[in-house]
Amino acid sequence: MATPTTWWLLPVLLVTFPYCCCSSPGPPAPPSNLECCRPCNKTHCSVIECIWDPKPHPDIGPNYILHWKPENEEEEPVTTRYSLDGKIRRENFESHGELRVWVQNQNGSVKSQEIVIHTQHIVKPPPPTITSSDEDPLEIHWSTICDKLELNVGVCDVRYRTEDDQNWIWTDYNLSSSYGVNEPQPGTVYKFQVRCKCDPSLMSDWSPSFPKKSAESSPVGEVDAWLDCGLLLSNSDCFLNWKNLSISQARGYILGYEIAVFYNNRTEQLINVSMGNPSSLFVYDEMKWRLTSSLKNVSSFSISAYNALGATKTSRLPRPISGKQATEPKIYLKLNEKNLTVSWNQSSKVSDNIKQYVVQYKECLPGSGSDWIKVDKKQTTAFFKGTFKKYTSYQVSLFAVSNLNVISQLATATGYSAQGVPSKVTSFKVSDIVGTKVTLTWEPVPCSNQRGEILYYEIGLNMQGDPNHISIPVRHINVSGITYTLEALSPGQEYTVWIRAVTAAGPSEKVNKTFKINHHEDYAFVTPIVVIVLLVIAIALISFILCVFHGAKKECPLLPQCLYEKVPDPSNSQIFKQMKRQINEPLTWMRGPLYEPYPTISILEIVEIKSKVFDPDMMKKENGCPLMDCQDDQQKDPTRESSGFTDSRYGRKEYSKMVDSDEERNDCWSSSEEEQSTSGYEKHFMPSPLEVMVE
Question: Where is the Fibronectin type-III domain (predicted)?
Answer without folding.
Answer: 124-217, 325-420, 421-522
